Fold this sequence. Notes:
The protein is an all-alpha fold. It has one domain (6-76). 70% of the residues lie in helices and 0% in strands. The chain contains 4 helices and no strands. The protein has helices at 6-15, 20-31, 36-57, 59-78. The N and C termini lie far apart (76 Å).
Amino acid sequence: MPEPPKLATALLRSAAANEPALVGDLLERFQAGQSPLWYWRQVLAVVGRTVSFGVRSSFWWSAAAITAAVLVLDLPYLFTLPSRSMRVNGF
């Protein structure tokens, strides 16, 4: 029986930890004769799906965190006046 690529299997088990049936089905199909390229393509599709679900579900939290970080990092610059050397033509 052929062994699936170890790295791909580790990625699959990590990305689909809550879906053991999916992991089992892909392993069975590989052992039934699918190529390693096919297996990698399926694993990357599962990883991509998992990442996209994670990004979509946390989109608002991510947007809020980025906004807060930008405000905190730019806050000192909002309250300082430009130095004399930066002023050009009365601006």
